[in-house]
Design a protein that fits this description.
about 1000 residues; mainly alpha; five-stranded antiparallel β-sheet
Length: about 1000
């Protein structure tokens, strides 16, 4: 009782806020004065000892379950944070950064290549001068020939919007290559030819080192004057007349009437005739667009798609007059013209994979949650044991919350951790959610079922449950992590990320299980009645007990068949396009493009050779560029002769580019012929002869630069190296910088041959690539010029195919060996670890048989099957093996352990299957066969544990070897424990691992 302070004057019962504050201060000061500082310090120093005594008194269980509700709330609040980082909120109103997805997904093909890969090194060399970020606009014309002027004008209009600044880095486009651009290059080349010749003539009148001589100034003035007439007499960068179009396109056909490789790359005739055969009219075309890496691909694709959508519905004149004005008042859109353009290519497909993967994940994952929840509810509401009348729905809901909630949180934690750390993943990580969800619930079930079986207070029951199952759950988690982490030994990032994500996920599942499940169990006070195992498991287990040798023989026969015939018949087929989502527009069009153009697997052959020339620089290696171009043309021809291969180089442009001058050519030629020369007379005469041919209106209209270069005497040219160099200088000047640098580097020291292949089986691709590389190896110049091996998509597929064949054995070997070592340490018995792992090894060995009979190839996804099975299947064997060990061994113990564990294995297999079954809705071709094989082998793993493992132990017992050693085995052999005395309840009381069955 507090004594009233008499010093305080009486009041009306109310105190001011100031008085209250003073009173509070007085009380605090008074309390502080009573503190014994020495005793307080002693209490602080003694805190660790007190915590130790508390830990010794109640153990880890007491610490974990001291505050059940706050503990669960803390983990739920942490889960809320990880939800925000997991991508779950992407594209919702709660997304605080709509432009950036939460997860860093890399869908680029180069991610499949390991560090140090030759293909990756070659790609890096190519990317020094060229962009490999390529989009393709796939063009279809149903009513008119692609070469019709009006169709080409529409293609050109799209190009002008996409690439408004030609040969300028200020827009997103580095270059566009299409039939339209080739025609515009040819149409606009005459002014550039004239300008190049006049400029060169002006320089001939200058002394060495002199830049601003009189003739150079005159040349500049003449070019300025002639430039005013360019548009008047044609020659602008636009689609030419239909007559010119027909002449240029005609040059793109071989003498036998077949299209050249360059034309085949840009346009095709795929139908229109009888029965869908070609009708002689080009009805398909492509627009290859290289884009910058300075801007996100997502934004470039969105802008490009917007432009295509906008122009497709825009009404424009149905026909244009020659001056570019509308021919009449009629208006047409693409539908009226029978024209369509769809965006596809490597960049859009990569973006589709990136955008689609986790958008789809969060569409599929809820289904997996529902299916697993239904499975848990049915198994734990006593429906199977007691029927509808004895069903306990509240009990089922409690188990669903206790076992399901921590696992669900663990999935969010795993993906949220990936998002929060910005760890780069690939689309293969999409399978992590269903796998974690399916596997994780079993850990919680081990604890809850043991808790429901124990007697005593809630704390005592939980302590007994964790003491008996904690070690078992930990062992299951460790062995599962071993199986998954073995995937890190593969040299490919998409598989490594799955291994890392699954391993981290299992660790998180274990942590959340150990903290959340005990507290949720105490909060909900779960109580479950015991049920005997189903009769079916008694019958099933009698098979390995009575016919142990037959069971082992059947498994050995199947393994032998799988290892020989099965493995020999499993194809190795890395289909990179099969990793892209079906139904997405870029993927659909890429498949059509691959089929109709025999293209899609874009590749490059890098030529290390100078394709320009300069006799005066003292470097003999670039004195004969014409010979080098002929070698490139020869290599290109050889590559085009290879099956499933289309090659095109800068020579294609030389063959397509006409040199017929404009009407102003005579005036320019007169200036050149009258210009005095300071350089050597022979060199000057050669140049003037070249000018006379090019500008003197003596050439046929279809004469190309290649014709002049390869057969100069036919056109009155001297054919000297200097003349060839002059001609090449003029040719390169006739092209826009943008188009020239599609094939040739800026300094002319390197060039590319683009090699296209369709998406075909990797074995066929490998044969074609091998022949390509044989031809590139034979490319040699007099001064060390070389051609590199093919790089690009096809080379990547072959490299990945080679890697997965070897890496699967590395990862499998690691998983099995480390599992054996772990079990040997835990069981303290090497032999017992071998027997326990045998069913898992048998299951892995049978994968070849299943894949062969299901016609499933070895792919980027199916290569993970073995390691995943080790992680999943070893739990089944541990359940039975540990129970047999605890019972001391013997045939009766084997029978009791298998029967008692049967329902648990069945539940685990069903729930895991339900979780994996949701992945069938992932519309990625490579995922579905992977899920099918996993599901089949999952049940094989359960059957192996329930049938093969008991058969092995029974065989050892009958041989007098005995599988179980140690104290338990010794006790049984001394008669301290009798097999016949084991009844089901004893089995349940002795079990450490299989706690699911204890309450059946």
């Amino acid at each position: 009782m507090v004594k009233k302070d008499e010093s305080v004057p009486a009041s009306d019962g109310r105190k001011s806020s100031g008085e209250k504050l003073r009173n509070f201060r007085s009380q605090v000061v008074g309390q502080l004065k009573t503190i014994d500082s020495k005793r307080g310090m002693d209490a602080v120093l003694d805190a660790p000892k007190r915590m130790k005594r508390e830990w010794q008194k109640s153990g880890a269980t007491g610490a974990i379950t001291r505050f059940p509700i706050p503990t669960v709330l803390v983990f739920l609040l942490l889960t809320v944070y990880f939800v925000t980082q997991s991508g779950f909120l992407d594209d919702t109103r709660f997304d605080d950064d709509p432009n950036n997805p939460a997860l860093n997904v890399n869908g680029d093909m180069e991610v499949y290549l390991p560090d140090g890969s030759q293909v990756a090194e070659l790609l890096a060399k190519v990317e020094e001068d060229w962009s490999t970020n390529v989009m393709v606009v796939y063009i279809e014309s149903d009513n008119q020939n692609i070469t019709d002027q009006r169709i080409l004008q529409e293609i050109s209009y799209v190009e002008s919007i996409l690439n408004p600044y030609l040969s300028d880095d200020s827009d997103d486009v580095i270059y566009i290559l299409s039939l339209s651009t080739v025609l515009k290059e040819v149409n606009s080349s005459a002014p550039r030819i004239r300008e190049a010749l006049v400029t060169e003539a002006g320089n001939l009148g200058c002394a060495t080192g002199q830049e601003n001589c009189a003739t150079a100034g005159l040349a500049e003035q003449l070019n300025d004057a002639l430039e005013l007439t360019d548009e008047q007499f044609g020659g602008s960068y636009e689609i030419p007349s239909q007559t010119t179009i027909d002449l240029v396109v005609e040059e793109m056909y071989e003498e036998d009437g077949s299209p050249s490789s360059g034309l085949n790359k840009l346009a095709r005739d795929v139908g229109g005739g009888e029965n869908g055969t070609p009708d002689g009219l080009l009805d398909r075309a492509i627009m290859a667009i290289a884009v910058t890496e300075e801007r996100p691909a997502k934004d470039i694709i969105a802008d490009t798609q917007f432009i295509l959508d906008n122009i497709s519905s825009k009404d424009r004149p149905c026909l244009f007059a020659e001056d570019g004005s509308p021919a009449d008042n009629s208006l047409c859109n693409w539908e009226d013209l029978g024209l369509s353009m769809v965006l596809t290519g490597p960049v859009p497909i990569t973006n589709a994979v990136t955008e689609f993967s986790f958008r789809l994940f969060w569409e599929i994952f809820p289904m997996a949650v529902v299916l697993v929840a239904i499975g848990l509810f049915l198994f734990h509401s006593d429906l199977l044991q007691a029927g509808l009348t004895g069903m306990r729905p509240i009990q089922g809901l409690k188990v669903l919350i206790i076992a399901g909630l921590p696992t669900l949180c663990a999935v969010f934690w795993t993906l949220g951790l990936i998002g929060a750390t910005n760890y780069e993943v690939t689309m293969t990580v999409i399978i992590v959610g269903p796998i974690l969800l399916a596997l994780g619930v079993s850990y919680g079930l081990h604890i809850t079922n043991r808790y429901a079986e124990e007697e005593g207070t809630r704390s005592e029951k939980m302590r007994a449950s964790l003491n008996s199952t904690g070690k078992a759950v930990f062992l299951s988690a460790v062995t599962t992590v071993i199986g998954f982490i073995s995937l890190v030994f593969t040299p490919m990032a998409p598989i490594q990320t799955v291994g890392i994500a699954l391993s981290a996920g299992i660790v998180i599942v274990y942590i959340l299980t150990m903290f959340m499940v005990p507290n949720l169990t105490l909060i909900l006070d779960l109580k479950k009645p015991k049920h005997p195992p189903l009769r079916a498991f008694d019958v099933l287990v009698e098979v390995p007990v009575k016919y142990n040798k037959g069971v082992i023989g059947v498994f050995l026969l199947l393994i032998l068949l799988s290892a020989t015939v099965g493995q020999a018949n499993v194809e190795e087929n890395i289909d990179l396009l099969g990793m892209a989502p079906e139904g997405e527009s870029p993927v659909v069009k890429m498949k059509q493009y691959s089929k109709e153009f025999e293209a899609g697997q874009v590749g490059m052959v890098l030529i290390n050779a100078n394709v320009s020339g300069d006799i005066r620089d003292g470097d003999p290696s670039n004195d004969d560029p014409a010979t080098m171009l002929k070698k490139i043309d020869n290599l290109e021809s050889k590559l085009n002769g290879i099956e499933n291969t289309t090659a095109v180089s800068v020579v294609f442009l030389m063959k397509s580019s006409g040199v017929k001058g404009s009407i102003s050519g005579e005036q320019a030629n007169t200036f050149i012929q009258e210009t005095p020369c300071i350089v050597a007379q022979e060199q000057c005469d050669d140049f003037k002869d070249l000018s006379e041919v090019l500008l003197g209106n003596n050439l046929a209209i279809n004469t190309s630069f290649w014709d002049l270069l390869t057969d100069p005497s036919e056109y009155g040219l001297p054919g000297s190296r200097q003349t060839q160099i002059f001609l090449l200088d003029v040719f390169y000047a006739s092209l826009t910088k943008e188009t020239r640098e599609i094939f040739v580097s800026e300094d002319f020291s390197r060039s590319l041959i683009y090699v296209d292949m369709p998406f075909i089986p990797v074995a066929d691709t490998a044969r074609s690539v091998e022949v390509v590389n044989q031809n590139t190896d034979s490319f040699r110049g007099d001064f060390g010029e070389t051609a590199e091996d093919l790089t690009g998509v096809a080379a990547t597929a072959i490299e990945v195919n080679r890697l997965i064949v070897g890496s699967q054995w590395t990862s499998l070997g690691f998983a099995i060996i480390l599992t054996l070592i772990t079990l040997a340490i835990v069981f303290r018995d090497v032999r017992y670890s071998i027997w326990t792992t045998s069913p898992v090894i048998a299951t892995v060995a049978l994968q070849w048989l299943v894949m062969w009979r299901m016609d499933v190839p070895l792919s980027l996804v199916t290569v993970m099957i073995g390691s995943i099975l080790v992680g999943v299947g070893v739990d089944f064997s541990i359940h039975i093996a540990n129970r047999i060990r605890e019972l001391g061994g013997g045939i009766q113990a084997i029978r009791s352990a298998a029967v008692g564990t049967g329902m648990s294995l069945f539940e685990a297999a069903v729930v895991t299957s339900l979780g994996m079954f949701a992945a069938y809705d992932i519309p990625i071709p490579e995922i579905r066969p992977f899920i099918t094989v996993i599901l089949i082998l999952l049940w094989v793993a359960a059957a192996s544990a329930l049938i093969l493992l008991p058969a092995i132990f029974v065989t050892l017992e009958k041989m007098g070897i005995g599988a179980v050693g140690g104290a338990n085995g010794m006790a049984r052999r001394l008669g301290l424990v009798e097999d016949a005395s084991y009844v089901l309840d004893d089995v349940m009381d002795a079990s450490l691992i299989d706690d699911v069955v204890d309450v059946w």
